[in-house]
Protein backbone atom coordinates (compact mmCIF):
# COMPACT_ATOMS: atom_id res chain seq x y z
CA UNK A 1 0.00 0.00 0.00
CA UNK A 2 2.98 2.34 0.75
CA UNK A 3 4.50 1.80 -2.68
CA UNK A 4 1.17 2.55 -4.31
CA UNK A 5 0.98 5.93 -2.37
CA UNK A 6 4.50 6.94 -3.41
CA UNK A 7 3.67 6.14 -7.01
CA UNK A 8 0.60 8.38 -6.89
CA UNK A 9 2.59 11.27 -5.29
CA UNK A 10 5.24 11.22 -8.02
CA UNK A 11 2.61 10.98 -10.70
CA UNK A 12 0.80 14.02 -9.21
CA UNK A 13 4.02 16.09 -9.10
CA UNK A 14 4.74 15.29 -12.72
CA UNK A 15 1.34 16.39 -13.91
CA UNK A 16 1.45 19.65 -11.88
CA UNK A 17 4.37 20.72 -14.04
CA UNK A 18 2.34 20.07 -17.17
CA UNK A 19 -0.63 21.90 -18.53
CA UNK A 20 -3.62 22.65 -16.31
CA UNK A 21 -6.03 20.53 -18.44
CA UNK A 22 -3.78 17.52 -18.06
CA UNK A 23 -3.90 17.98 -14.28
CA UNK A 24 -7.69 17.65 -14.29
CA UNK A 25 -7.43 14.57 -16.44
CA UNK A 26 -5.08 13.08 -13.85
CA UNK A 27 -7.48 13.83 -11.03
CA UNK A 28 -10.27 12.05 -12.94
CA UNK A 29 -8.02 9.05 -13.50
CA UNK A 30 -7.14 8.86 -9.81
CA UNK A 31 -10.77 8.98 -8.78
CA UNK A 32 -11.59 6.12 -11.14
CA UNK A 33 -8.74 4.06 -9.72
CA UNK A 34 -9.89 4.63 -6.14
CA UNK A 35 -13.47 3.72 -7.06
CA UNK A 36 -12.37 0.49 -8.73
CA UNK A 37 -10.18 -0.44 -5.74
CA UNK A 38 -12.99 0.27 -3.27
CA UNK A 39 -15.51 -1.78 -5.30
CA UNK A 40 -13.18 -4.74 -5.52
CA UNK A 41 -12.68 -4.79 -1.76
CA UNK A 42 -16.44 -4.64 -1.08
CA UNK A 43 -17.55 -7.44 -3.42
CA UNK A 44 -14.64 -9.74 -2.86
CA UNK A 45 -15.72 -13.27 -1.77
CA UNK A 46 -13.31 -15.23 0.30
CA UNK A 47 -13.42 -19.03 0.37
CA UNK A 48 -12.06 -20.92 3.34
CA UNK A 49 -10.90 -24.42 2.55
CA UNK A 50 -10.46 -26.71 5.54
CA UNK A 51 -7.31 -28.72 5.72
CA UNK A 52 -9.20 -31.97 6.26
CA UNK A 53 -12.68 -33.15 5.28
CA UNK A 54 -15.10 -33.56 8.22
CA UNK A 55 -15.42 -37.08 9.53
CA UNK A 56 -19.11 -36.78 10.45
CA UNK A 57 -21.91 -38.14 8.23
CA UNK A 58 -23.06 -36.10 5.28
CA UNK A 59 -26.54 -34.68 4.91
CA UNK A 60 -28.12 -35.17 1.49
CA UNK A 61 -30.73 -32.71 0.36
CA UNK A 62 -33.48 -34.16 -1.88
CA UNK A 63 -33.89 -32.76 -5.36
CA UNK A 64 -37.17 -33.05 -7.22
CA UNK A 65 -37.83 -32.96 -10.94
CA UNK A 66 -40.98 -33.85 -12.89
CA UNK A 67 -40.90 -37.54 -13.70
CA UNK A 68 -37.38 -37.94 -12.27
CA UNK A 69 -35.83 -38.99 -8.98
CA UNK A 70 -32.22 -38.20 -8.23
CA UNK A 71 -30.61 -40.86 -6.09
CA UNK A 72 -28.28 -39.92 -3.20
CA UNK A 73 -24.74 -41.31 -3.15
CA UNK A 74 -24.42 -44.77 -1.56
CA UNK A 75 -24.29 -44.72 2.23
CA UNK A 76 -22.63 -47.44 4.32
CA UNK A 77 -25.06 -49.58 6.28
CA UNK A 78 -23.75 -48.36 9.62
CA UNK A 79 -24.11 -44.68 8.72
CA UNK A 80 -26.90 -42.72 10.39
CA UNK A 81 -28.52 -39.70 8.79
CA UNK A 82 -28.74 -36.63 11.02
CA UNK A 83 -32.39 -36.12 10.19
CA UNK A 84 -33.19 -39.44 11.84
CA UNK A 85 -34.19 -41.18 8.58
CA UNK A 86 -32.38 -44.48 8.01
CA UNK A 87 -31.50 -45.38 4.47
CA UNK A 88 -32.07 -48.94 3.33
CA UNK A 89 -29.02 -50.06 1.39
CA UNK A 90 -31.15 -52.63 -0.49
CA UNK A 91 -32.37 -50.23 -3.17
CA UNK A 92 -33.09 -52.55 -6.11
CA UNK A 93 -36.67 -51.34 -6.38
CA UNK A 94 -35.73 -47.67 -6.11
CA UNK A 95 -32.94 -47.89 -8.64
CA UNK A 96 -35.21 -49.30 -11.33
CA UNK A 97 -38.28 -47.17 -10.65
CA UNK A 98 -37.70 -43.56 -11.71
CA UNK A 99 -40.97 -42.44 -10.12
CA UNK A 100 -39.90 -43.18 -6.56
CA UNK A 101 -39.06 -39.99 -4.64
CA UNK A 102 -36.22 -40.70 -2.23
CA UNK A 103 -36.33 -38.53 0.88
CA UNK A 104 -33.23 -38.03 3.00
CA UNK A 105 -34.23 -34.99 5.04
CA UNK A 106 -37.30 -34.51 7.18
CA UNK A 107 -37.69 -30.94 6.04
CA UNK A 108 -39.01 -32.34 2.75
CA UNK A 109 -42.09 -33.48 4.65
CA UNK A 110 -43.17 -29.85 4.81
CA UNK A 111 -42.85 -29.24 1.09
CA UNK A 112 -46.21 -28.00 -0.29
CA UNK A 113 -46.13 -30.34 -3.29
CA UNK A 114 -45.32 -33.28 -1.06
CA UNK A 115 -48.21 -32.44 1.29
CA UNK A 116 -50.58 -32.23 -1.67
CA UNK A 117 -49.32 -35.55 -3.06
CA UNK A 118 -49.64 -37.22 0.33
CA UNK A 119 -53.21 -35.96 0.73
CA UNK A 120 -54.15 -37.28 -2.74
CA UNK A 121 -52.67 -40.69 -2.04
CA UNK A 122 -54.38 -40.84 1.33
CA UNK A 123 -57.79 -40.05 -0.14
CA UNK A 124 -57.46 -42.74 -2.83
CA UNK A 125 -56.28 -45.39 -0.37
CA UNK A 126 -59.16 -44.46 1.93
CA UNK A 127 -61.57 -45.25 -0.91
CA UNK A 128 -59.88 -48.58 -1.57
CA UNK A 129 -59.24 -49.80 1.96
CA UNK A 130 -61.07 -49.63 5.28
CA UNK A 131 -60.07 -50.17 8.89
CA UNK A 132 -61.45 -53.71 8.69
CA UNK A 133 -59.46 -54.61 5.58
CA UNK A 134 -57.34 -57.09 7.55
CA UNK A 135 -60.40 -59.38 7.56
CA UNK A 136 -60.39 -59.49 3.78
CA UNK A 137 -58.82 -62.92 3.36
CA UNK A 138 -61.15 -64.58 5.86
CA UNK A 139 -64.25 -62.90 4.42
CA UNK A 140 -63.42 -63.89 0.85
CA UNK A 141 -62.65 -67.50 1.80
CA UNK A 142 -65.77 -67.76 3.93
CA UNK A 143 -67.89 -66.39 1.08
CA UNK A 144 -66.55 -68.91 -1.43
CA UNK A 145 -66.55 -71.86 0.98
CA UNK A 146 -70.07 -71.19 2.20
CA UNK A 147 -71.38 -71.19 -1.34
CA UNK A 148 -69.29 -74.14 -2.54
CA UNK A 149 -70.94 -76.51 -0.06
CA UNK A 150 -74.15 -76.55 -2.08
CA UNK A 151 -72.33 -76.51 -5.44
CA UNK A 152 -73.60 -73.02 -6.17
CA UNK A 153 -70.15 -71.50 -6.70
CA UNK A 154 -69.00 -73.09 -9.94
CA UNK A 155 -66.83 -70.15 -11.02
CA UNK A 156 -65.24 -67.36 -8.99
CA UNK A 157 -65.56 -63.86 -10.40
CA UNK A 158 -63.86 -60.69 -9.20
CA UNK A 159 -64.50 -57.03 -9.94
CA UNK A 160 -63.03 -53.85 -8.45
CA UNK A 161 -64.78 -50.57 -7.74
CA UNK A 162 -62.70 -47.54 -6.74
CA UNK A 163 -65.38 -44.83 -6.88
CA UNK A 164 -68.23 -43.96 -4.53
CA UNK A 165 -71.25 -46.23 -4.18
CA UNK A 166 -73.44 -43.46 -5.62
CA UNK A 167 -71.55 -43.63 -8.91
CA UNK A 168 -72.26 -47.36 -9.32
CA UNK A 169 -74.88 -46.92 -12.04
CA UNK A 170 -77.00 -48.76 -14.58
CA UNK A 171 -74.12 -49.81 -16.81
CA UNK A 172 -72.31 -51.44 -13.92
CA UNK A 173 -75.51 -53.21 -12.87
CA UNK A 174 -75.95 -54.49 -16.43
CA UNK A 175 -72.46 -55.96 -16.19
CA UNK A 176 -73.39 -57.77 -12.96
CA UNK A 177 -76.60 -59.06 -14.49
CA UNK A 178 -74.73 -60.43 -17.51
CA UNK A 179 -72.39 -62.39 -15.22
CA UNK A 180 -75.30 -64.22 -13.58
CA UNK A 181 -77.22 -64.60 -16.82
CA UNK A 182 -74.39 -66.74 -18.18
CA UNK A 183 -73.29 -68.13 -14.78
CA UNK A 184 -76.31 -68.47 -12.49
CA UNK A 185 -74.24 -70.66 -10.13
CA UNK A 186 -71.22 -68.39 -10.11
CA UNK A 187 -69.95 -66.28 -7.21
CA UNK A 188 -68.89 -62.64 -7.51
CA UNK A 189 -66.69 -60.66 -5.12
CA UNK A 190 -66.44 -56.91 -5.71
CA UNK A 191 -63.27 -55.58 -4.05
CA UNK A 192 -64.46 -52.17 -2.95
CA UNK A 193 -64.50 -50.13 0.23
CA UNK A 194 -67.38 -47.91 -0.88
CA UNK A 195 -69.65 -50.82 -1.78
CA UNK A 196 -68.73 -52.65 1.41
CA UNK A 197 -71.26 -50.49 3.22
CA UNK A 198 -74.96 -50.08 3.93
CA UNK A 199 -75.50 -48.21 0.68
CA UNK A 200 -73.58 -50.90 -1.19
CA UNK A 201 -75.71 -53.61 0.37
CA UNK A 202 -78.81 -51.85 -0.90
CA UNK A 203 -77.39 -51.81 -4.43
CA UNK A 204 -76.64 -55.53 -4.36
CA UNK A 205 -79.79 -56.52 -2.46
CA UNK A 206 -81.90 -57.31 -5.60
CA UNK A 207 -79.31 -59.91 -6.66
CA UNK A 208 -79.40 -61.59 -3.25
CA UNK A 209 -83.21 -61.71 -3.40
CA UNK A 210 -82.92 -63.58 -6.70
CA UNK A 211 -80.54 -66.07 -5.11
CA UNK A 212 -77.37 -64.84 -6.84
CA UNK A 213 -74.11 -64.97 -4.89
CA UNK A 214 -72.50 -61.53 -4.82
CA UNK A 215 -70.80 -59.53 -2.11
CA UNK A 216 -68.57 -56.46 -1.72
CA UNK A 217 -65.48 -56.66 0.52
CA UNK A 218 -62.91 -53.99 1.32
CA UNK A 219 -59.54 -55.14 -0.09
CA UNK A 220 -56.37 -55.62 1.93
CA UNK A 221 -53.35 -54.69 -0.15
CA UNK A 222 -50.96 -55.81 2.57
CA UNK A 223 -52.33 -59.35 2.37
CA UNK A 224 -52.62 -59.45 -1.41
CA UNK A 225 -49.01 -58.41 -2.02
CA UNK A 226 -47.24 -59.87 0.98
CA UNK A 227 -43.81 -61.24 -0.01
CA UNK A 228 -44.03 -59.75 -3.49
CA UNK A 229 -42.29 -56.78 -5.12
CA UNK A 230 -45.49 -54.77 -4.78
CA UNK A 231 -45.36 -54.90 -0.97
CA UNK A 232 -42.42 -52.49 -0.75
CA UNK A 233 -43.84 -50.35 -3.55
CA UNK A 234 -47.20 -49.99 -1.80
CA UNK A 235 -45.53 -49.05 1.49
CA UNK A 236 -43.50 -46.40 -0.33
CA UNK A 237 -46.70 -45.10 -1.89
CA UNK A 238 -48.47 -44.75 1.47
CA UNK A 239 -45.48 -42.84 2.83
CA UNK A 240 -45.69 -40.39 -0.07
CA UNK A 241 -42.43 -41.54 -1.65
CA UNK A 242 -43.97 -42.49 -5.00
CA UNK A 243 -44.93 -39.91 -7.58
CA UNK A 244 -48.55 -40.85 -8.49
CA UNK A 245 -48.36 -38.92 -11.77
CA UNK A 246 -51.14 -37.37 -13.81
CA UNK A 247 -53.10 -40.54 -14.54
CA UNK A 248 -55.74 -41.45 -11.94
CA UNK A 249 -54.03 -43.18 -9.04
CA UNK A 250 -57.23 -45.10 -8.37
CA UNK A 251 -57.13 -46.49 -11.90
CA UNK A 252 -53.52 -47.58 -11.50
CA UNK A 253 -54.21 -49.19 -8.13
CA UNK A 254 -57.13 -51.02 -9.71
CA UNK A 255 -54.69 -52.42 -12.29
CA UNK A 256 -52.57 -53.75 -9.44
CA UNK A 257 -55.52 -54.91 -7.33
CA UNK A 258 -57.00 -57.15 -10.03
CA UNK A 259 -53.70 -58.96 -10.44
CA UNK A 260 -53.40 -59.48 -6.69
CA UNK A 261 -56.93 -60.90 -6.43
CA UNK A 262 -56.23 -63.55 -9.04
CA UNK A 263 -52.78 -64.26 -7.63
CA UNK A 264 -54.10 -64.96 -4.12
CA UNK A 265 -57.41 -66.63 -4.92
CA UNK A 266 -57.51 -67.59 -8.60
CA UNK A 267 -60.58 -67.11 -10.74
CA UNK A 268 -61.95 -64.68 -13.31
CA UNK A 269 -61.48 -60.94 -13.27
CA UNK A 270 -63.70 -58.65 -15.37
CA UNK A 271 -64.09 -54.89 -15.54
CA UNK A 272 -67.42 -53.34 -14.62
CA UNK A 273 -67.95 -52.28 -18.25
CA UNK A 274 -67.82 -55.86 -19.54
CA UNK A 275 -71.03 -57.51 -20.77
CA UNK A 276 -70.70 -61.30 -20.50
CA UNK A 277 -72.34 -63.22 -23.36
CA UNK A 278 -71.60 -66.88 -22.64
CA UNK A 279 -70.07 -69.19 -20.06
CA UNK A 280 -66.35 -68.91 -19.25
CA UNK A 281 -66.28 -72.48 -17.95
CA UNK A 282 -64.01 -73.74 -20.74
CA UNK A 283 -61.39 -71.01 -20.31
CA UNK A 284 -58.25 -71.58 -18.24
CA UNK A 285 -55.21 -69.31 -17.78
CA UNK A 286 -56.34 -66.92 -20.49
CA UNK A 287 -55.71 -63.29 -21.37
CA UNK A 288 -57.19 -61.51 -24.39
CA UNK A 289 -55.60 -59.66 -27.27
CA UNK A 290 -57.00 -56.22 -27.98
CA UNK A 291 -55.39 -55.71 -31.38
CA UNK A 292 -53.63 -57.85 -33.96
CA UNK A 293 -51.09 -57.07 -36.64
CA UNK A 294 -52.92 -57.67 -39.90
CA UNK A 295 -49.66 -58.32 -41.74
CA UNK A 296 -48.42 -61.07 -39.43
CA UNK A 297 -51.60 -62.20 -37.70
CA UNK A 298 -49.88 -61.86 -34.31
CA UNK A 299 -51.28 -59.80 -31.46
CA UNK A 300 -49.91 -56.28 -31.10
CA UNK A 301 -51.52 -55.36 -27.78
CA UNK A 302 -53.17 -57.22 -24.92
CA UNK A 303 -55.70 -55.93 -22.41
CA UNK A 304 -56.29 -56.64 -18.73
CA UNK A 305 -60.07 -55.99 -18.61
CA UNK A 306 -60.68 -59.76 -18.64
CA UNK A 307 -58.23 -62.25 -17.12
CA UNK A 308 -58.70 -65.88 -16.12
CA UNK A 309 -55.92 -67.51 -14.09
CA UNK A 310 -55.26 -70.17 -11.49
CA UNK A 311 -54.20 -69.17 -8.00
CA UNK A 312 -50.50 -68.32 -7.81
CA UNK A 313 -49.93 -68.51 -11.56
CA UNK A 314 -46.33 -67.46 -12.35
CA UNK A 315 -47.43 -65.01 -15.03
CA UNK A 316 -49.37 -63.06 -12.40
CA UNK A 317 -46.26 -62.76 -10.26
CA UNK A 318 -44.38 -61.41 -13.27
CA UNK A 319 -47.18 -58.85 -13.70
CA UNK A 320 -46.82 -57.78 -10.06
CA UNK A 321 -43.05 -57.40 -10.34
CA UNK A 322 -43.37 -55.42 -13.55
CA UNK A 323 -45.85 -53.04 -11.92
CA UNK A 324 -43.61 -52.38 -8.91
CA UNK A 325 -40.39 -51.98 -10.87
CA UNK A 326 -41.66 -49.92 -13.82
CA UNK A 327 -44.58 -47.91 -12.38
CA UNK A 328 -45.17 -44.66 -14.23
CA UNK A 329 -48.20 -42.59 -13.28
CA UNK A 330 -47.82 -40.17 -16.18
CA UNK A 331 -48.45 -42.60 -19.04
CA UNK A 332 -51.96 -43.84 -19.63
CA UNK A 333 -52.09 -47.62 -19.92
CA UNK A 334 -48.45 -48.06 -18.94
CA UNK A 335 -49.42 -49.93 -15.77
CA UNK A 336 -52.35 -51.78 -17.35
CA UNK A 337 -52.74 -52.96 -20.97
CA UNK A 338 -49.17 -52.03 -21.90
CA UNK A 339 -47.83 -53.76 -18.78
CA UNK A 340 -49.38 -57.14 -19.55
CA UNK A 341 -48.31 -56.71 -23.19
CA UNK A 342 -44.68 -56.11 -22.19
CA UNK A 343 -44.52 -59.09 -19.85
CA UNK A 344 -46.27 -61.56 -22.15
CA UNK A 345 -44.07 -60.45 -25.04
CA UNK A 346 -40.96 -61.28 -23.02
CA UNK A 347 -42.26 -64.61 -21.72
CA UNK A 348 -43.89 -65.97 -24.87
CA UNK A 349 -42.38 -69.30 -25.81
CA UNK A 350 -40.66 -69.84 -22.45
CA UNK A 351 -41.43 -72.90 -20.38
CA UNK A 352 -43.04 -72.83 -16.94
CA UNK A 353 -45.55 -70.11 -17.74
CA UNK A 354 -48.39 -71.83 -19.58
CA UNK A 355 -51.20 -69.54 -20.71
CA UNK A 356 -53.27 -68.74 -23.77
CA UNK A 357 -53.74 -65.46 -25.62
CA UNK A 358 -57.19 -65.47 -27.21
CA UNK A 359 -57.97 -63.30 -30.28
CA UNK A 360 -59.69 -59.89 -29.99
CA UNK A 361 -63.09 -61.31 -30.91
CA UNK A 362 -63.16 -63.19 -27.58
CA UNK A 363 -63.47 -60.14 -25.31
CA UNK A 364 -62.86 -57.05 -27.48
CA UNK A 365 -64.86 -57.53 -30.69
CA UNK A 366 -64.86 -53.76 -31.27
CA UNK A 367 -61.91 -51.48 -30.52
CA UNK A 368 -62.45 -48.39 -28.38
CA UNK A 369 -62.03 -46.17 -31.43
CA UNK A 370 -65.11 -47.75 -33.04
CA UNK A 371 -67.26 -48.51 -29.99
CA UNK A 372 -69.78 -45.84 -31.03
CA UNK A 373 -70.92 -48.06 -33.90
CA UNK A 374 -72.42 -50.53 -31.42
CA UNK A 375 -74.62 -47.84 -29.88
CA UNK A 376 -76.14 -46.67 -33.17
CA UNK A 377 -79.53 -47.80 -34.41
CA UNK A 378 -80.09 -48.59 -38.11
CA UNK A 379 -79.57 -45.60 -40.40
CA UNK A 380 -80.43 -47.30 -43.68
CA UNK A 381 -81.10 -50.69 -45.17
CA UNK A 382 -77.41 -51.39 -45.72
CA UNK A 383 -76.59 -50.21 -42.20
CA UNK A 384 -79.31 -52.47 -40.83
CA UNK A 385 -77.75 -55.43 -42.64
CA UNK A 386 -74.34 -54.57 -41.21
CA UNK A 387 -75.77 -54.38 -37.68
CA UNK A 388 -77.42 -57.77 -38.05
CA UNK A 389 -74.21 -59.33 -39.41
CA UNK A 390 -72.06 -57.81 -36.67
CA UNK A 391 -74.48 -58.86 -33.94
CA UNK A 392 -74.47 -62.44 -35.25
CA UNK A 393 -70.66 -62.47 -35.34
CA UNK A 394 -70.40 -61.21 -31.75
CA UNK A 395 -72.92 -63.71 -30.43
CA UNK A 396 -71.19 -66.66 -32.06
CA UNK A 397 -67.51 -65.73 -31.57
CA UNK A 398 -67.35 -63.56 -28.45
CA UNK A 399 -67.44 -64.49 -24.78
CA UNK A 400 -67.94 -60.86 -23.76
CA UNK A 401 -68.06 -57.29 -25.06
CA UNK A 402 -66.01 -54.48 -23.61
CA UNK A 403 -68.04 -51.26 -23.62
CA UNK A 404 -65.01 -49.00 -23.11
CA UNK A 405 -66.95 -46.79 -20.71
CA UNK A 406 -64.41 -43.99 -20.77
CA UNK A 407 -65.12 -43.48 -24.47
CA UNK A 408 -68.73 -44.65 -24.69
CA UNK A 409 -70.39 -42.94 -21.72
CA UNK A 410 -71.29 -40.06 -24.00
CA UNK A 411 -73.23 -42.34 -26.32
CA UNK A 412 -76.91 -43.02 -25.92
CA UNK A 413 -78.10 -46.59 -26.47
CA UNK A 414 -80.25 -46.16 -29.57
CA UNK A 415 -83.21 -48.31 -30.43
CA UNK A 416 -82.25 -51.27 -32.60
CA UNK A 417 -78.54 -50.94 -31.79
CA UNK A 418 -76.25 -53.89 -31.13
CA UNK A 419 -75.75 -52.82 -27.52
CA UNK A 420 -79.49 -52.73 -26.91
CA UNK A 421 -79.86 -56.29 -28.20
CA UNK A 422 -76.88 -57.53 -26.19
CA UNK A 423 -77.91 -55.96 -22.90
CA UNK A 424 -81.58 -56.88 -23.30
CA UNK A 425 -80.69 -60.58 -23.60
CA UNK A 426 -78.37 -60.35 -20.55
CA UNK A 427 -80.87 -59.06 -17.97
CA UNK A 428 -81.81 -61.07 -14.91
CA UNK A 429 -82.97 -58.27 -12.58
CA UNK A 430 -84.05 -55.32 -14.70
CA UNK A 431 -87.57 -55.71 -16.10
CA UNK A 432 -88.00 -52.29 -17.68
CA UNK A 433 -86.08 -52.46 -20.96
CA UNK A 434 -87.16 -48.93 -21.86
CA UNK A 435 -84.31 -47.63 -19.69
CA UNK A 436 -81.89 -48.90 -22.30
CA UNK A 437 -82.89 -46.25 -24.86
| Portion in strands | 5-15%
Order of strands in the sheet with the most strands?
A: 5-4-3-6-9-8-10
Please provide the count of β strands: 11
What characterizes the major β-sheet?
7 strands, mixed
The global form is globular
- Which residue ranges are poorly predicted, with pLDDT under 50 across at least 5 consecutive positions? 42-95, 102-109
Give the radius of gyration: 34 Å
Distance between the termini: 98 Å
Classify the helix fraction into a percent range: 40-55%
Total helical elements: 16
Listing every helix as H and every strand as E from the N terminus to the C terminus, the arrangement reads HHEEHHHEHEHEHHHEEEEHHEHHEHH
Structural classification: alpha/beta
Mean pLDDT: 80
Give the topology, please.
Blueprint: H1 2-16, H2 20-42, E1 64-65, E2 68-69, H3 92-96, H4 112-128, H5 136-148, E3 156-160, H6 170-182, E4 187-191, H7 198-209, E5 213-217, H8 221-224, H9 229-238, H10 249-265, E6 267-270, E7 274-276, E8 286-292, E9 299-309, H11 314-326, H12 337-347, E10 356-358, H13 360-363, H14 381-397, E11 400-402, H15 405-408, H16 418-424
Parallel strand pairs: 3-4, 3-6, 4-5, 8-10
Antiparallel strand pairs: 1-2, 6-9, 7-11, 8-9
Helix pairs in contact: 1-2, 9-11, 10-11, 11-12
Amino acid sequence: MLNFTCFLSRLLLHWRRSKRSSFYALISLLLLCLLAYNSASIFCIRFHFPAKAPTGPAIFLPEYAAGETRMPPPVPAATKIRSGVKLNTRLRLMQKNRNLVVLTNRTAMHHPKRRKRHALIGSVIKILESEGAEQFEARVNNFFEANSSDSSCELRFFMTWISSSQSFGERELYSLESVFKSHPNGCLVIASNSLDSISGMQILKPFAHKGFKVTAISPDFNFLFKNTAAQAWYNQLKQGNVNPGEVSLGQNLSNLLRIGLLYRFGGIYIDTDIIVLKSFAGLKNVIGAQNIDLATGNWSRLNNAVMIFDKGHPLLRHFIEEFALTFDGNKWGHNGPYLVSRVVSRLSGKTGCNFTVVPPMAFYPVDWTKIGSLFQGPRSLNHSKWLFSKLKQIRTQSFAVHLWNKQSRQFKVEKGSIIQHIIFTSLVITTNSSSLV
